[in-house]
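task queued by scheduler; priority normal; single chain, no ligands, no partner chains; default sampling; output format set to structure tokens
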Amino acid sequence: MASSDTSRLRDLALDVDHALLPGDGWCGRDKAHTLAAIVVALRPRVVVELGVWMGGSAIPMALALRAVGSGQLVAIDAWSVEMSVAGQEAEIHRTWWARMGERGHLRAFETFLSRLRALGISPDHCTVRRQRTDEALVPPSIDLLHIDANHGPQVLADIERWTPAIRAGGMLILDDLDWAGGHVLRARDRAVELGFIELYPLGTGCVMQRVHDV
């Protein structure tokens, strides 16, 4: 490894800490560093995140891709009230997303873009798609997929649509297994049926790996 690469990896932890949003409970420090470490260990060519919001989890992965010097994150989110509210079974969640309104969703989208610019993360390491997860183009091969989009029935559709592209040995990360309605838990169980094993918990979710094809 070249000395410049070693230096970038040494500085990655500092970069991740610097990028954290104050009080961001959506992706705390431990999860942010774990995501970056997974990227460093896996050396993925293609990382996909479904559900980006302000980039709490996307940015640590993009920083890690930059540190290793290869690979690209595809960050996908509709940033729309319609998609955020759809299928939410708990009143508190429906109310929160609805209260954000389209202006709040646009502000989150613009905040993510401004964070990418401020951190010097170029399109070489992070491509942003403002699209629904059921409409965005699925890459032919995915090394790491982080699903943190709509936690209603849509999460099961996302599992069916996106996980077939994960290569053997590739990783799947699910968030919020305890979300109201149980759809994320069912998505985890469906991933097992599709050839994944659960490796370890991560925050409110888990890290899984494809071990065989169905």
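post-processing summary
- The mean pLDDT is 93.
- Residues 3-210 form a domain with the Rossmann fold fold (CATH 3.40.50.150).
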